[in-house]
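ugh ok fine here u go
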Amino acid sequence: MDEAIRFSETVSARLEDGVLVVTLNNPPVNAISADMRAGLLDAVRQANSDQNVRALVITGAGKAFIGGADIREFGQPATEPTLPTVVEAIEGSGKQIVAAINGAALGGGLEIALACHHRVAGSAATLGLPEVKLGIVPGAGGTQRLPRLTGVVKAVELISSGRTVTARDALSLGIVDEVADDPVKGAISAARDQSAKLPRRTGALAVPAEDPKAIEDGAAKALSRARGSEAAIEAVRLVRSAGERSLADGLSDERATFLRLRDSDQAKALRHVFFAERAAAKVSGLEGVEPRKVEIVGVVGSGLMGSGIAVAALDAGYRVIVVEQTDEAAAKGLDRITGLLDRALKSGRIDEAGRSGRLERLSVGSSMEALAAADLVIEAVFDDLQVKSELFEKLGRIVRPETVLATNTSYLDPDAIAAVTSFPERVCGLHFFSPANVMRLVEVVRCARTAPDVLATGLAFARRLKKLPVVCGVCEGFIGNRIFSAYRREAEFLVEDGASPQEIDAAMENYGFAMGPFAVFDLAGLEIAWARRKRQAATRDPSERYVEIADRLCEMGRFGQKTGRGWYTYPDGKRTVDPEVTALIDACRAAKGIVPRQIAAAEIASRLLSAMAAEGNALLKEGIAERASDIDLVLINGYGFPAYRGGPMYVSQQGTHS
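structure:
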């Protein structure tokens, strides 16, 4: 065999002193295409028949090992060789095959690595089987090989959640054998050392013995999180069966399950979400526009939202300046931010060095002038137009000419806030969702005068925070809160018509929401929406249907969980139906002469979903949202809409609410 050879368009190799180093190159993430499968299989077969090759190393070009299957092939006729065929050839190779995991090894990429006889990961590598996020299960041995390395309990958690792990975590779990700064060099060394040994085949290993109760508890926990996800439910079943039958039987069941789920409604919806995220990154008017440079981020306000934004920025490597009104408030803000970092340390998400490094990049004080050093300033103060306007007027006299100002308002008009400055073109909205260091969604608001490079800066900043930015125009509530208001309004109509809050919550939780609307209202607090309704009272159309029940609850001091009473009551923190609320609902119906009727769960879900879609269509018509799929992303990532349903606009387009 020549020292340099190309097996296909995406697979090439070089021979280094008896070790064939096979490189996979399919930018940007080395997705497993038909060409890659064919080339890799050819490389393995030729190497096994070539006496000059003692061992093989498989690695990826660029920053990825293999980022998973090529999703564009889903729904297409299978092209030979299939991934299971390639994986079987790798594991069955008579010569040692070492995976040099130089970057992300996800889905089929990790399945290829699991089939290798030894695994060396780069320190920055990430590994995972995220197939459930596309409505499927691993289809090339992931559910059967991973538990042979990690045990069933850990494999159930990883596969049913689709969570990725770092190289160090993978090492401690037994998924990889080594972590090296230069994984290719380490893999070549390992291949030479082990070339004379019999390959260690993952599929031939026994599943480690574990406490049956621990397996049962782990499975129950995973199933409780699944909330109707067929893929997660099947993943749990397949992993649990790995230790109870032969590898061949497990692989056969896994493949059949994969093929069945691939064509399911849930998988189709999740593919819609996948492509929606790609589409959201393409924003009209920003072609060729470069964002401004941001190295120092200012945050005004250190409450729940401000501290979360600060931590997210620190996690992304920024220097962060947090400003409060007083020294006392600043001290409390620092405690809050430190507490969030301590929690991340305790959970293992960061280490002690990471915590220290973040605190070194943080300053918290009460001097507004400190923000003169910031490239981007985000306000996270009380959602009051006068408060925010006065703040922006003051910031306008402090910040540098190139600094971008962003408002985190939920309902106020950012154009009115921008108007108090002499540079409205440098203002945009960055609407984070609480807790901001956890929630993935950011609505990036394009104001009337926002300059293209300022909007691009907001998007680039959100992406560096590993958030999902969705661009929207200016209206009250933007995309998410405006649709949520329509959802709330229809839920209250349903109560007035005869459904109880607990029946509505049960219907939506059965549909896949983590919490029903009334449980969410109580969690968020009823007084915010009440204040908004009071502001709107003078301009409300008297002929428009209006439900007073929520107002009566607030007048009784029932503001939700924080007061122990809202739509429900909360003795010992447990949500309980309150007869007082039931009586209030009955009285309000009677006052309007409404005779309540039984409303089936299917009608409840249909009406609520239709209300969301109708408001979404209005947003599209007004140009607030650029595309229907953007609306789906907002509802899924900010409001708990079940991803495997595809979002309210997708459901509406499919013509089914079941």
